[in-house]
Amino acid sequence: MNMEVIQSRYGLDRTIEKIGTDRLRVMGESQFQRTAQNDEGEITMFDFEGGPVLSIGGEIYFQKMKWKIEKIQPVASQHEGLSECILTVTPKY
Predict the structure, then answer these.
(1) Cα 88 to Cα 23: distance, rounded to the nearest angstrom
(2) 29: CB partners within 8 A, 6+ apart
(3) 25 and 84 in contact (C-beta within 8 Å)?
(4) φ, ψ at 66 (rounded to 5°)
(5) What is the pLDDT of residues 39-83, one digit of tens each?
(6) Is 0.85 surpassed by the pTM of this model?
């Protein structure tokens, strides 16, 4: 399994896991998260408590590569205090 752990500015772990050729799951302990959407109702930003802030067109580093975020899908967690989203990404060379 391809997984990396990064930390929020508060020292909380966030895991980034590759779940498909163009999909990453980002999750971790977070008491809240904020989202923004465009006029069509598509999520354009996902912000974990203490970071990271993920946005469409932005970048995420994973497996020593830069990935451009194309789509963000929040996931309803089954566990209180856990936040999760799925990113559709493309590599940036």
Answers:
(1) 5
(2) 12, 13, 81, 82, 83
(3) yes
(4) -95, 135
(5) 999 999 999 999 999 999 999 999 999 999 999 999 987 888 899
(6) yes
